[in-house]
Design a protein that fits this description.
44 residues, 55% helix, elongated, mainly alpha
């Protein structure tokens, strides 16, 4: 398969799922992560 023109997209549902998994019991980091994502440059 040729993936050169493929654009992978992570939807917000799955992004949130992995943020929760990655922060485990450290809920205080979730807000900081979301803030960084929402304020970041979305262009690749």
């Amino acid at each position: 398969m040729d993936y050169q023109k493929t654009k992978f997209v992570l939807d917000r549902y799955h992004l949130n799922k992995y943020i929760i998994r990655g922060t485990a019991k450290r809920e205080e980091y979730r807000e900081k992560i979301w803030k960084a994502i929402n304020e970041g440059d979305k262009k690749v």
